[in-house]
């Protein structure tokens, strides 16, 4: 009975596979939104003010960072929690694939969130005259919370790696 339960629990990791596949649909949605921005930008680029252009470009960078985050979570999450990706020798393989454990994945996600938040905050500051001061303050507080969280997660990960290195010696 114990072996059956353990096998069932171990096999249930495959329930994550459709979730990672669903993230690829999110990536498709991001790509559609990105090119929608491009198609709106190109015909109007000569008539746009510099600030407007920068805001649109920051929005596109934001979408790109979120896309990269999705790819990282999909591939690393699948490899860490479901199954190794069997990529043939003839195909190009990402150099970080197979090297990111769940701890480093969390740190990469946290760093990506800080980068995305930074770009969002920059967009907000570019339009600061149209945003009330109390909202600006909240944007900064939320961003600093992300920064602090990422720093603490990185620090804790660093401490746990040092503890593991001491245990090896």
Automatic annotation (TrEMBL):
The keyword Endoplasmic reticulum does not apply. Its main location: membrane. Belongs to the UPF0114 family. It is found in: Cell membrane. The chain crosses the membrane at residues 12-35, 55-75, 138-156. InterPro entries: UPF0114 (IPR005134), UPF0114_bac (IPR020761). The keyword Repeat does not apply. This is UPF0114 protein GK011_14370. Keywords: Cell membrane, Membrane, Transmembrane, Transmembrane helix. It is a multi-pass membrane protein.
């Amino acid at each position: 009975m114990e072996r059956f339960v353990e096998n069932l629990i171990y096999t249930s990791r495959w329930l994550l596979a459709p979730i990672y596949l669903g993230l690829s649909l999110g990536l498709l949605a991001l790509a559609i939104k990105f090119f929608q921005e491009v198609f709106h930008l190109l015909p109007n680029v000569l008539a746009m003010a510099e600030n407007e252009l920068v805001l649109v470009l920051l929005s596109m960078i934001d979408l790109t960072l979120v896309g990269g985050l999705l790819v990282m979570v999909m591939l690393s999450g699948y490899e860490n929690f479901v199954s190794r990706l069997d990529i043939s020798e003839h195909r190009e393989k990402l150099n970080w694939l197979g090297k990111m454990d769940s701890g480093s994945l969390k740190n990469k996600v946290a760093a990506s969130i800080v980068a995305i938040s930074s770009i969002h905050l920059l967009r907000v500051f570019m339009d600061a005259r149209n945003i009330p001061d109390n909202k600006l303050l909240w944007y900064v507080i939320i961003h600093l919370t992300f920064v602090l969280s990422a720093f603490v997660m990185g620090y804790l990960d660093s401490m746990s790696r040092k503890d593991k290195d001491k245990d090896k010696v």
